[in-house]
């Protein structure tokens, strides 16, 4: 039997950090301050990462210890991303928008010992740490240490002083196994309690390689990537590591996440790529209609995390900033699929039909759909079933400190059960029909809440809309539409129903509607259907069109 003559080689994030420092010293991360950028080069990131690692050594941070961040997307956060996994510790990115109960649960579950916090959100963290007896050190970044109120078991440090005077090189350990833990991230809990997913050096390395390949995002050193998706949400879709792999410039919005400052930042930074969930782009589009601005410097806008409304794709085509639709989850690092039309499709309308799908799986992700008994279903573009995925950056379990298996029902023969219902076409294009929990079951038929939302939002007077299934005496469940419309006169149910008559089968047209000024959003900016459901159940919406019980 002939053996390969190739060497081994360990995929480690320390190698990646050193590579970016030496090969792309001119590469930059740029953080918006509200009026200008403050820049840091990859060479400086490498130096500061070394300094931070030395300082963390001084606190006794060892292999596998959790170092948490409670921070916006900014230069300092990038330094922590570089330092912590490279020294063999585990970076835990805490979500800034969790409820206090969830935040305290996660802090204790992850057993965080050290936390780096942006001063602007330090008061919030103080309240959580008061209930987290395991925390020992808090390091305040970008502001005064006084912004954090420490309980007596915590020592507070100022970041600049903490790293000052430390050596700017670090002898990163060479024996960290590529399969060991690098970053810990909790799911945002849209559909239940947060669950911990632990990425490895290997999974992040392979994911970053794909982000720089044309089967992924196609990021290169000629790009400037605006990462609006938070660094506390699935590692900002893996972008902080992907830019280090290819020398792309990274633009960080810090806490300036509203459409107006985002657009001001874009005018100044002229990114070529940008990444965020649809609700962010919905706001940006509305602002652009009110105050036109050229955003054609964006060669591609990567949108995922929730289904992209078809009208949004059309709107951004008009802005000359084409949207590329992608699907993923915290559990999938997150790149699970990406919608690029097949070769040879030149007609824009034909291409559009592919762009609205969730796309094809990249080479290292295997996908399949299965029925309720777990039998594989055909890729015929019509049969729908639960989507299951597997691959080197798909989680095979959830983190449990006691080593017990958590949520075994989420896994099936080594595949992750996504909880999404999908179809797959013969040429490999996956289309998410809905989340299992969101499908509306009405009189024995199914309605996809995603498709109905798309149809409702294709009416230009609808700014935002979400659809949930609500109890109905006759049909078990019927759709309820919660919408934000342009003006009071647009809160006209009959007009909306007439609009839908051409778009969806008659039996799907919703009877119940409510109009509000804002739809509740989750901690990562998606429509919060859980909140809409419970508010509906409490009678918290003024519902029009409720059919009389029979
Ligand atoms: P959470 O489940 O807490 O929202 P995630 O960010 O991990 O946290 O969300 C993953 C889910 O988001 C997927 O299972 C899917 O339901 C939804 N999703 C992500 N991208 C898309 C997309 N492009 N189209 C439709 N749904 C999507």
Say what the CATH topology of the domain at 438-537 is: GMP Synthetase, Chain A, domain 3
State the separation between the terminal residues, measured CA to CA: 76 Å
* CATH first level of the domain at 438-537: Alpha Beta
Radius of gyration computed on alpha carbons:
24 Å
The major pleated sheet works out as: 8 strands, mixed
* Tally of helical segments: 16
Structure description:
The protein has 550 residues and is an alpha/beta fold. It has a domain at 438-537: GMP Synthetase, Chain A, domain 3, CATH 3.30.300.30. The protein has 16 helices and 25 strands. It has an 8-stranded mixed beta sheet with strand order 2-1-11-10-12-13-14-15, sandwiched between helices. Strands 7-6-5-3-4-8-9 form a 7-stranded mixed beta sheet. Strands 16, 17, 18, 19 and 20 form a 5-stranded antiparallel beta sheet that branches. A hairpin with a 6-residue loop joins strand 14 and strand 15 (335-338). The radius of gyration is 24 Å and the shape is globular. The protein starts with 12 loop residues before the first helix and ends in a 13-residue tail after the last helix. The chain binds adenosine-5'-diphosphate (ADP). Adenosine-5'-diphosphate is lined by residues 187-191, 304-307, 325-330, 358, 418-420, 432, 435, 524, 526. Adenosine-5'-diphosphate (ADP) is lined by residues 187-191, 304-307, 325-330, 358, 418-420, 432, 435, 524, 526.
């Amino acid at each position: 039997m002939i053996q390969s003559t190739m060497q081994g080689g360990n995929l480690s994030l320390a190698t990646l950090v050193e590579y970016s420092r030496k090969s792309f010293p001119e590469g930059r991360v740029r953080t918006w301050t509200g009026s200008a950028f403050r820049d840091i080069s990859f060479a400086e990131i490498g130096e500061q990462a070394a300094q931070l690692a030395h300082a963390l050594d001084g606190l006794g941070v060892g292999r596998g210890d959790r170092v948490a961040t409670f921070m916006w997307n900014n230069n300092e956060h990038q330094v922590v991303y570089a330092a912590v996994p490279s020294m063999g510790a585990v970076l835990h990115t805490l979500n800034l928008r969790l409820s206090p109960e969830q935040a305290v649960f996660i802090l204790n579950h992850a057993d965080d010992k050290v936390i780096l916090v942006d001063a602007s959100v330090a008061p919030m963290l103080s309240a959580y740490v008061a209930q987290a007896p395991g925390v020992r050190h808090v390091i305040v970044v970008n502001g005064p240490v006084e912004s954090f109120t420490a309980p007596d078991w915590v020592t507070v440090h100022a970041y600049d002083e903490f790293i000052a005077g430390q050596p700017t090189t670090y002898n990163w350990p060479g024996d960290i196994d590529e399969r060991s833990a690098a970053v810990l991230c909790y799911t945002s809990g849209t559909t239940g309690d947060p669950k911990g997913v632990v990425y490895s050096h290997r999974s992040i390395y392979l994911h970053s390689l794909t982000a720089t390949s044309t089967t992924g995002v196609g990021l290169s050193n000629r790009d400037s990537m605006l990462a609006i998706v938070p660094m506390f949400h699935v590692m900002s879709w893996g972008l902080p590591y992907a830019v280090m792999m290819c020398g792309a410039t990274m633009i960080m919005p810090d806490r300036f996440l509203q459409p107006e400052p985002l657009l001001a930042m874009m005018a100044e930074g002229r990114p070529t790529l940008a990444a965020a969930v649809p609700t962010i782009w919905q706001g940006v589009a509305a602002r652009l209609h009110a105050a036109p601005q050229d955003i054609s410097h964006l060669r591609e806008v990567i949108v995922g995390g929730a289904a992209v409304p078809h009208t949004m794709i059309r709107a951004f085509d008009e802005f000359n900033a084409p949207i590329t639709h992608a699907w993923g989850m915290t559990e999938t690092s997150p790149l699970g699929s990406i919608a690029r039309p097949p070769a040879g499709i030149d007609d824009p309308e034909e291409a559009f039909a592919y762009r609205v799908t969730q796309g094809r799986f990249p080479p290292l992700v295997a996908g399949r759909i299965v029925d309720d008994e777990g039998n594989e279903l055909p890729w015929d573009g019509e049969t729908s079933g639960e989507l299951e995925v597997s691959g080197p950056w798909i989680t095979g379990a959830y983190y449990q400190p006691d080593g017990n298996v958590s949520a075994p029902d989420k896994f099936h023969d080594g595949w992750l059960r996504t909880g999404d219902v999908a179809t797959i076409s013969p040429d490999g294009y996956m289309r998410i029909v809905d989340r299992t929990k969101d499908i509306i079951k009405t009189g024995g038929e199914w309605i996809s809440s995603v498709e109905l939302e798309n149809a409702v939002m294709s009416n230009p007077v609808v700014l935002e809309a979400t659809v949930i299934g609500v109890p109905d005496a006759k049909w078990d469940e019927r759709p309820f539409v919660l919408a934000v419309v342009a003006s009071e006169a647009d809160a006209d149910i009959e007009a909306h129903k007439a609009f839908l008559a051409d778009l969806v089968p008659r039996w799907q047209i919703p009877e119940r509607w409510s109009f509000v000024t804002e739809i509740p959003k989750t901690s990562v900016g998606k429509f919060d259907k859980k909140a809409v459901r419970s508010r509906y159940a409490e009678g918290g919406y003024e519902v029009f069109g409720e059919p009389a019980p029979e």
